[in-house]
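Study this chain:
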Amino acid sequence: MNTITEQTLTEFSQWLADRRVIGASIAGEALYLADGTPTATWIIDLRNRAVTAAAFKVLADSGRKVWCGRVTSTRYTGTHRTVRAEHAGPYAMRLTGQRAEAHSWLWDASTLLHTLRPFSTTDNRWERDPRIDPLGFTATSPADAAVLTARLVTELHTGSPAAARKVALHSCQQQAMWRHREQIGWRVDVDKLRAEIESCYTSKRQLTDEFGIDLVTAATAADRARIHNWLAGYGIEIRDQHGDPTLARNAIDEVNLTDLTSEARDAWWKFRRARSNYSRMAKLLEIKSALQNGRIYTHLQLRATITGRSTSARPALQNIHRDLRGLLIADRGKVLVSLDLSTIEPRIAAALSGDQRLAADIASGDLYTSFARRLWGASASDEAGGIIQEHRDIAKTAMLQTFYGSGSATLAQRLGPDTTVATAQQLIDGLWAAYPQLRSFRDQLNAAARRRRPDPYASGRPSAYSPRGDHAALNIRIQGEAADAFLELSSAALHRLGPRAAWLSVFDELVVEVPEAHAEQARQILQETMCAQINGIPLTGQAQILGAAWRK
C-alpha cells in the first residue's frame, strides 16, 4: 500500500494516467483507491487537509472517474447507536469540509449497479455489506473493498449494452446534483415534532382505552403475538408469502375480508386505525432519532427501487404522512417552491399503450370524472349533471391501485369497510373494459415477464421483472418510464436553478429552496422546464410557492 504524501503525488498522478477502472472505499478517515487487482493501493489520510486538497486536485485534473459504494458510519448519542449508510460524496465532504465541486471525480457505484441491474435492489448482498461482491469476491479490508468496487464496475460496464451504460452514467451525474443537500441536511421544526409525538401518544392511550387492548405497540415478539392472538379471536390471520405471521403493510392490505362476520370486520377496522397510529408514530420517532442540531441528514437514492424510482433513508421521507410534511422547513431567509407532475401514471400508461380512450379522458381535463362515467354511465352524475364526488373518488382509487398492481382484496380494503372483494373486482374488470388497448399492452408485458425478458425502457435503461409475479409488470413499466421522465425534467430544472437549490425529490414532486426574493423566478423556471410530451401525451404540473414549510 502507498500513502499519498507531498513526495508521492507525482507517482500517484502517473498511476492515475494508466487506463484502468478505479475503485474506492472509505474507512474511518482514510480513502482507499485501487484498481481491479490488489497489487497497488493508494491511501489518502483525510485528516491531513493540505495533502487531501492536493490529492483531490490531482484526481480532478486527471479526468478519471473514481467509483465508490456506500459508506457505513456509526454515531453514538448517549446510549443510542445509529448506523447509517450514505453516498461517499457527502460523507467525504463532511470529513474534509470541501464543497461538492471538489469531489466531481467521485462517482457512486451503487447508482451504477441499481441502474444496470435493477433486480439487484431486491436481493443485493453487496449493498447490504460492501465487503461482499455479487461476483463472488469477498473483501477482508478497506483496500480489498476498493478492489471489489473496481471489479464490480468493470463487470457492469463490460456486461451492459452501450445505451444502458450511457443512461447509468447519466443517472450517476443526476445523483451527484444532490450531494450539497445531503451534506447540509434538512431543517426540522423541532417544536412541531415534539407536539406531534405527544399527540400520537395521546391517541395511542385513547385507542387502547376504546379497544381494551394495545394494538399499536409492536416492538417485541410478545407485542406482535398479542395482536395476532386478538385478531385470531375474530378468525383473522395475517401471513407473509412463507405462511408466517406478520404485520407488514403489504400483507395487511392483501387480507381478504369477504367471509368475515360483521363483528370481525368491525374489529379489523379498529386494527387498521391502530396501525395507522403506529405508522405515524414510527415515522415521527424515526425523524427524532435522526436529529442532529435541529437537522436531519437523509440519504437520497435516485435509482434504489426495482423501477428506478427515487427513495430516501434514515429517515425515509418518501412515505411521510402528508400532514407531517410541515415538519421539514426551509432555512432562514429562504422559501420552498415545488412542482408535482399531475396524474403521471395514467399519462404514462396512455403514452405507452396508445389507448385512445384513455388519452381522450386525460384530455378532457378530469380523467377520473371521465372514467367514473365510463363505469357507471348516467348514474355517476347528480341531478344537476355534475359528477357525484364519491363515484369520482372510487374511480380514482380503482385506476391508480390497478396501475400499482393491486388485486381485488387490496383494492377492497383501500375503498373501505363497505366494499366487498367482488365489487372491487368489478371495478378492475371495468377498467380493462373501458381501455382495451391498455389491456392488450398489459397482456404483452405479462407475457414478457413470464419469459423473464422484459424490454428495456425507452431510455435504454434495463427493466426488471417483479418477484411478485407478472401481475406487477404493468406497474413496473409505468413507474420505470415515469421515473426516467421525472428525473430528466427535474435535472433540467436544477441545471437552470443550480444544484444548490435542490431540496427534495419525492415520487413526482421536485421541491427547491431559493432566497425569498427569487421565489417567483424559481416558480417560473419549474413551470417552463418540467413539462414534456411522450408520444403526444403531455406531462404537466402546476408550480407553486410553498413558503417556509413543505406541504401538499
